[in-house]
């Protein structure tokens, strides 16, 4: 298919020397991934050279290191990292847990009762379309500076994603199973436990994953605009201090955090929970597309 | 004769059923909206007071003022232009990226991490990036929209390429069509719907990020106005702009995007059509 694959053996035949080994290393999957990162860093560095306002990769990573180890930033400022991170994580996980519980209940209602669906569907759409920044502003105005605004923002941005996904999962259950359980007089609690929950698990998972990504954005924004501690506030602190390397450094930390959470935690749990299923979603592309449909 | 009447009766039953379903849906919809506004009114009046949560009427009046003095058109138009410019750039870059990802293993591995990271990075990242690179300007939101929509477009295009009929390509080769002809007549037609689907998927998200970028650094647009109202501590102002934004999004989604999609996917036939 690709021209690269076609040209590789031809070169190998000519001379199995160091060049062909190098070429094989460069054209391998890992070579491609590493070259992508290197290219990214080069583009970043080029941007720094053309626009002096943009902090370069080296100062930014030095900043992150100093901030994490608590070293001096020059002058009297010292790095502060883990304390703020812990505070934000507490707020984030608290908001997320409420969002998952509420979202699941709402999703089951919307999925199983047509009336609830007609009643709540548009409201849900509106909530999905609302940018997190609006919740951040409203909650900061309502609750002032403190823990409440970030928690509520996380909850309000994350819950609709859980609800929509769970509702989809409930509606995907074959009606025959419902009818059969009705015919055999299975009580509602048992029906939820043995019919709805197992069927909804996959959808719930997709919803939670998306809720985590949007909720993380929400908690950061709420802290940026209305908090006196936490990582969002720390970002704001460096922005107000007009030190863009701190501003950008924290943003890099946020990206790394969410990617690690997604890759290490979610992919693992998903694999464990769905071991019993047939191999599904092998193609990353399909997985990504599925996640983005929500 | 008897068969015809049976068919007629069935058709009548079906249409009655459909009408009843439709009624139930519109009824629930209206009830939903009335309930929404009703609950809002009750909370504003009896729970938190009209200062913390202005009544629907106050917000509605303010919305009408915004529409009447031309601010609505001005700022929404400014935001729309930025979104479209951003999407244009996203398509321009994302389509070739997706094309290469779909055609070669190397480029797939190369773009895998950037696309994955760009797809799950929090919105605040893009706002900050735009602010740092462009300062307070029109270009910031455009860059943000382009960066947000690009991974979705690239992924969808790659999927379209991978799903393109290999037999059709082989046949074209057998008949000695040039690579350009294959691109023009086989690959591009099979990519286009996927590219549009990518735009559609990322649409709501791109709007959110565009608003956010305007909040952080812009001098026009809806996000900028919301930021202004927030800094004036005007609950009515924030809610009025937010509601206008919601209504605008819902209308755009219902009337423009769904139609556009239906038009572009028409050739795919009934099976796909039913899903939308």
Concise description?
The complex is a heterodimer of chains A (294) and B (276). Chain A is an all-alpha fold.
Please outline the major beta sheet of chain A. Answer: none
What proportion of the residues of chain A is helical, as a percent range? over 70%
Going by helix content, strand content and strand pairing, the class of chain A is: mainly alpha
Mean pLDDT of chain A, rounded to whole units?
81
Tags for this entry?
heterodimer; A: mainly alpha; MetI-like fold; 0% strand; disordered N terminus; B: mainly alpha; 86% helix
Strand and helix map with partners:
The complex is a heterodimer of chains A (294) and B (276).
Chain A: H1 3-14, H2 18-27, H3 29-50, H4 57-69, H5 82-112, H6 114-129, H7 132-143, H8 148-171, H9 175-183, H10 188-225, H11 231-240, H12 244-273, H13 284-293
Chain B: H1 2-47, H2 56-68, H3 71-103, H4 105-120, H5 123-134, H6 139-163, H7 166-174, H8 179-216, H9 222-231, H10 235-264, H11 270-275
Helix pairs in contact in B: 2-10, 3-4, 3-6, 3-8, 4-6, 5-6, 5-8, 6-8, 7-8, 8-9, 8-10, 9-10
Structure description:
The complex is a heterodimer of chains A (294) and B (276). By secondary structure, chain A is an all-alpha fold. Chain A folds into two domains: 52 residues, no CATH class; 212 residues, Orthogonal Bundle (MetI-like fold). Chain A contains 13 helices and no strands. In chain A, α1 runs antiparallel to α2. Chain A is globular, with a radius of gyration of 24 Å. The two termini of chain A are 33 Å apart. The N terminus and C terminus of chain A are likely disordered. Chain B is mainly alpha-helical and 276 residues long. Chain B has a single domain, classed as MetI-like fold (Orthogonal Bundle), CATH 1.10.3720. Chain B is flat, with a radius of gyration of 24 Å. The two termini of chain B are 38 Å apart. The C terminus of chain B is likely disordered.
């Amino acid at each position: 298919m690709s021209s690269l694959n076609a040209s590789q053996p031809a070169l190998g035949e000519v001379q199995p020397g160091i060049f062909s080994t190098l070429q094989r290393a460069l054209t391998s999957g890992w070579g491609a991934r590493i070259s992508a990162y290197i290219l990214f860093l080069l583009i970043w560095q080029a941007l720094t050279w053309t626009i002096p306002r943009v902090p370069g990769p080296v100062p930014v990573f030095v900043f992150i290191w100093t901030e994490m180890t608590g070293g001096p930033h020059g002058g009297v400022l010292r790095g502060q990292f883990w304390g703020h991170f812990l505070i934000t994580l507490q707020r984030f996980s608290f908001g997320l847990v409420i969002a998952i519980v509420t979202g699941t209940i709402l999703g089951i209602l919307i999925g199983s009762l047509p009336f609830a669906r007609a009643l709540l569907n548009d409201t849900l759409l509106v909530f999905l379309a609302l940018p997190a920044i609006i919740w951040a502003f409203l909650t900061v105005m309502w609750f002032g500076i403190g823990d409440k605004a970030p928690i509520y923002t996380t909850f309000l941005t994350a819950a609709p994603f859980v609800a929509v996904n769970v509702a989809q999962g409930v509606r995907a259950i074959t009606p025959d199973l419902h009818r059969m359980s009705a015919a055999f007089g299975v009580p509602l609690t048992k029906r939820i436990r043995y019919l709805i929950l197992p069927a909804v698990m996959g959808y719930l998972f997709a919803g939670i994953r998306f809720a985590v990504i949007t909720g993380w954005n929400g908690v950061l924004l709420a802290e940026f605009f209305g908090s006196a501690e936490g990582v969002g506030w720390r970002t704001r602190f460096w922005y107000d201090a007009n030190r863009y390397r701190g501003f950008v450094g924290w943003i890099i930390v946020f990206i790394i955090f969410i990617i690690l959470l997604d890759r290490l935690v979610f992919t693992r749990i998903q694999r464990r929970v769905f071991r019993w299923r047939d191999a599904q979603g092998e193609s990353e592309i399909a997985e990504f597309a599925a996640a983005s449909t929500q | 004769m008897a068969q015809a009447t049976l068919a007629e009766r069935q058709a009548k039953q079906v249409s009655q059923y459909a009408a009843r379903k439709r009624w139930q849906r519109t009824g629930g919809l209206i009830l939903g909206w009335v309930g929404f506004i009703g609950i809002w009114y009750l909370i504003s009046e009896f729970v938190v007071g009209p200062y913390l949560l202005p009544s629907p009427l106050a917000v509605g009046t303010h919305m009408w003022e915004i529409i009447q003095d031309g601010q609505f058109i001005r700022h929404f138009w400014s935001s729309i232009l930025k979104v479209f410019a951003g999407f244009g750039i996203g398509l321009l870059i994302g389509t070739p990226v997706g094309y290469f990802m779909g055609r070669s293993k190397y480029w797939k591995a190369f773009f895998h991490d950037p696309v994955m990271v760009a797809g799950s990075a929090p919105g605040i990242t893009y706002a900050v990036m735009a602010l740092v690179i462009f300062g307070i300007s029109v270009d910031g939101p455009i860059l943000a929209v382009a960066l947000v929509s690009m991974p979705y477009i690239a992924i969808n295009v790659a999927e379209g390429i991978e799903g393109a009929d290999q037999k059709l390509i082989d046949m074209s080769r057998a008949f000695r069509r040039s690579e350009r002809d294959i691109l023009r007549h086989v690959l591009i037609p099979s990519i286009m719907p996927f590219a549009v689907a990518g735009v559609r998927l990322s649409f709501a998200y791109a709007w959110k990020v565009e608003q956010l970028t305007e909040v952080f650094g812009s001098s026009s647009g809806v996000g900028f106005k919301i930021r202004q109202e927030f800094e004036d501590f005007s609950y009515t102002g924030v809610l009025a702009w937010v509601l206008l934004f919601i209504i605008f999004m819902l209308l755009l989604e219902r009337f423009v995007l769904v139609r556009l999609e239906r038009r572009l996917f028409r050739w795919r036939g009934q099976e796909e059509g039913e899903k939308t």
